Amino acid sequence: MTLKQLEAFYWAATCANFAMAAERLHLSTSSLSKRLVELEESVGVRLFDRTGHKAVLTVAGERFLPHAGALLQSAEATRRALGQDTGLSGRCLLGVGELCALTWLPRLLAHTRQHHPDLRLEPHVDIGRVLGERLRNGELDCAVIAGRSSHPSIVSHTIGQTHFAWVGSPSVVGRKAEYREKLFEEHPIVTLPTGAGTTKILDEWLMAKNLDVPHRLICNSWGAIAGLLIGGLGIGFLPEIWARSLARKGVLRVLRTEPSLAPLTYTLQRRRNDDRSFQPAILASVLASADFMTPPRLL
Amino acid sequence: MTLKQLEAFYWAATCANFAMAAERLHLSTSSLSKRLVELEESVGVRLFDRTGHKAVLTVAGERFLPHAGALLQSAEATRRALGQDTGLSGRCLLGVGELCALTWLPRLLAHTRQHHPDLRLEPHVDIGRVLGERLRNGELDCAVIAGRSSHPSIVSHTIGQTHFAWVGSPSVVGRKAEYREKLFEEHPIVTLPTGAGTTKILDEWLMAKNLDVPHRLICNSWGAIAGLLIGGLGIGFLPEIWARSLARKGVLRVLRTEPSLAPLTYTLQRRRNDDRSFQPAILASVLASADFMTPPRLL
DNA sequence: CGCGTTTACGCCTCACGTAAACATC
DNA sequence: GATGTTTACGTGAGGCGTAAACGCG
Lengths: 299, 299
Fold this sequence. Notes:
The first copy, chain A, is 46% helix and 20% strand.
C-alpha cells in the first residue's frame, strides 16, 4: 500500500470516472487503473465493482474511502509540518461564473497569491449548472455558484448577494425608461443560456409577472450581453452596480419594475468529504475579496 | 514522500543506528541511507545531522518524528480496516529472560498464535541488562524484564512477581538443610552473570546479611544451574515453585533464610513512543499467560 | 457504435544489494 | 583500526504511456 495508490483510490472514488481522476492526477487512465488493481491486491479486497458499464465502489470501498482520505490528509499535514512554509500549496481548480470572473476574480487571485503563494488557483469559467456538474464529477475542487446546492454530497458556504436591475438602451426603453409590458413583447430579452444562475431569477420573475416572452437572445458572454444591450438589440438585466454605472454614463437606462428581480445568493461549494487544507483558505480568501459585482474595468 | 521513506525514517530515528534500523526493515544499510536522503530531499529539510561519528536527529527531525509515527500508525489502521481480519499482524521481537523462556513463554506463544495467528512473535532470550539495551536500541519491540526501567523513553507494565528460595543438594546443605553462614563460605554460589535481574536480588540479600562470598560459580543457563545445584557443586536459589518441586522429588533441599530473598517484580517494557497496535495485544497475552515461573517440563 | 476500463508491450526510471570508499572516534 | 555512513555500479522489478482489445449500454 503506497500513498500514490491511496491518492489514486481517493480520486477514482471521488470523481465521476477513472478518466477524470486520471486527469486530476496527471496520469493516464491505464496507469491509474493499474494502480487501483495493485492497491486492491495489496489490501486483498476488491474496492471497485467493475461488472457494470462504469466502475462503482464496493461496500468495502465505501468503508475504505474515509480512511484513505484521512491518511492522505495527515500525509499532507505531515508534509506541511516540515515544509515550514506556513502557507498552503497545491492545486485548486475553482469554478466561477462569468460574472464573478469579470468582477472580483482578479482580486481573489491577487489575494491568494499574496497569502498563499504556493497555492495554484486555477479558475474555470462556465455557467452554474455546468460548474455544479463538474464539481460533483471531481473536475473542480470548488465553485462559486448562485444558490445553494441541493446535492447531498456538496456543502455550500454563503458568500454574498447580488441585486440585478433591468436595463435597456435609451433607443429601446425611451429616455424616461418607464416599465411597459409591451417592451418585453417587442424586444428580445438578452440573457445567458439555460443553466446559468441568472437565468433562473429571470424565469422566476417572468413567472411572477405571468409574462410570455416571444423570443430570447441567448449569448454565453456577459461582456457581449452588455454590448448587445448598449447596442439596443434587446432588453436585459445586469448586476445593479453595473446598471447604475452604465446609466451614469448615459449608455443604458435602468428600468424600474415591480417586483424587482430577486437577488442572487452566491455560495462557495465543495464536496462534503473533501477536507483538504486549502478549502478553508479558499473560503477565507473568497470572503475577503468578494465584495460583489463591482463593474469590470472594461465597462 | 512515500510510506516506505517514512517507515525508514521512523526506525532510523528510533534505533541506535542506521544498521539496526536497516536490519529491522530487512534492508541493507546503504538502501536505508538512500531512502533517508530521498525523504530529506522530498521534504526539503535535513532530518539527520551526519557530521558526527553517528547520525543524530536534527531539531527538524525531532519535530518530524511524531508526525511520521502517527502517519504510519494510521496507515496500519487503514490497512487493518480493510484486512477485515480482526487479528493483528506483523512482527514483534520480544525479549525475555531465560527463566521466562523456560516457563510461560510456550504458553505465551500458544496464546498469541491462537488469538492473533498473523502476529509473528519472535522471542529473544538474554539477561535483563542486555534486553534493556536492545530494547532501547530498537533491536527489540518489547521485553519482559525484572524490575521497572528507569529510562525515560521506556514504559514498564507490571505483570507479576516471583519469589525465590535458597536451595542446595542434601550433600551440600545436609538432610535438615538448616541455614548456616558457613555454607556460603564453603560452597560457591551458583548464579547467573551480572546484569541478570536475579543477580540483583542476590547482591541485595548478601548486602543485607553483610556476607562476603568467596567465590561464585557463574553460569549463563538456568537449566545448567539447576543441574549444578542438584549435582552438589554449590548452593543457589531458584524460583520458589521450582525449589519446592525439586525438594518434593528429594534432589534438593530448601534452605530457610532470614530475611528471605526479595521477590522479583517482572514488567513488560516497551519504548514510549511505540504505539503500534500489537503492543496492547502483547501485554494482554502476557498477562493472560504469565502465571509465573511454573517449573519447566524438563525438571 | 460510444464510453469506460483493462491488457499488451516497449521504455525507462527507480530501488535494491554488493563492495568499496569515506569519515569520525 | 573499529564503527558508522555514503558512493559507485550492475541488476531486476515496477511504473509509465501508447495503442489495441474488451465489455457493457
